[in-house]
């Protein structure tokens, strides 16, 4: 059984559309590293979660990437939403003239085994050299514990799958969704104006899940 590390049951429901009944929710508060790309955050979360679950896991990380701000807020989207607010992001974007943006999701898979490097990259944490100690399964709660390293000196490989939806930043519209959905327009409709089914049909998470499901089915 595949463990989807999330506190959001809606994500699990979306995943079952691609993975049938092979996925279940695994509630684990993994240490979230601070990094400028989604892959690093998701990969480190997957390594920590694998140690806790002692079985195959997927972890996703998502963000809004605004062209006028060189991709910001990206991995810091939740923090910006909480501190700056959704409408202020729209108001900051408006004077720039460039409203292009994209929602991105990276799904990280870890099962303790090695992978071939296709179709998507394998992250062995070469940039950070981080991993969990083999005798700290389920106990890692701080960045320091994540950086202790595997007792073998090796880093668990993680397979990464990215999904992307292009769009643009607009004035808030719609009552549904969450986060930046009201200010993100795709094909003339904001995510907040879409039903759950409509959003899932084009979602960045769904596109990442589709890539992962194809690879996982073959594996």
UniProtKB/TrEMBL annotation:
Protein's recorded name: Non-canonical purine NTP pyrophosphatase
Regions annotated as coiled coil: none
Molecular function via GO: nucleoside triphosphate diphosphatase activity
Residue ranges of the region described as Disordered: 128-155
Domain of life: Archaea
Comp. bias (Basic and acidic residues): 128-150
GO biological process, one term: nucleoside triphosphate catabolic process
One Gene Ontology term, aspect cellular component: cytoplasm
UniProt xrefs under PANTHER family: INOSINE TRIPHOSPHATE PYROPHOSPHATASE, INOSINE TRIPHOSPHATE PYROPHOSPHATASE/HAM1 PROTEIN
Family classification: Belongs to the HAM1 NTPase family.
Keywords (A to Z) from UniProt: Hydrolase
């Amino acid at each position: 059984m595949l463990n989807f590390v999330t506190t959001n049951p809606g994500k699990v429901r979306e995943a079952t559309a691609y993975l049938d009944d092979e996925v279940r929710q695994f509630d684990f508060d993994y240490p979230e590293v601070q990094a400028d790309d989604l892959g690093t955050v998701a990969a480190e979360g997957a390594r920590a979660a694998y140690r806790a679950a002692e079985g195959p896991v997927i972890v996703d990380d998502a963000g809004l990437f605004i062209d006028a701000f060189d991709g910001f807020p990206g991995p810091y989207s939740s923090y910006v939403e909480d501190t700056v607010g959704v409408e202020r992001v729209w108001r900051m974007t408006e004077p720039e003239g460039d409203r292009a943006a994209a929602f991105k999701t990276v799904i990280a898979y870890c099962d303790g085994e090695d992978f071939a490097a296709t179709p998507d990259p394998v992250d062995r944490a070469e940039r950070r050299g981080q991993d969990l100690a083999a005798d700290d399964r389920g106990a890692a709660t701080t960045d320091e514990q994540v950086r202790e390293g595997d007792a073998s000196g090796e880093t668990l490989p993680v397979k990464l799958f990215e999904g992307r939806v292009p769009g643009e930043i607009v004035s808030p519209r719609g009552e549904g969704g969450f986060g930046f959905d009201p200010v993100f327009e795709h094909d003339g409709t904001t995510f907040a104006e879409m039903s759950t089914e409509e959003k899932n049909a084009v979602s960045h998470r769904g596109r990442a899940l589709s890539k992962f499901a194809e690879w996982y089915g073959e594996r």
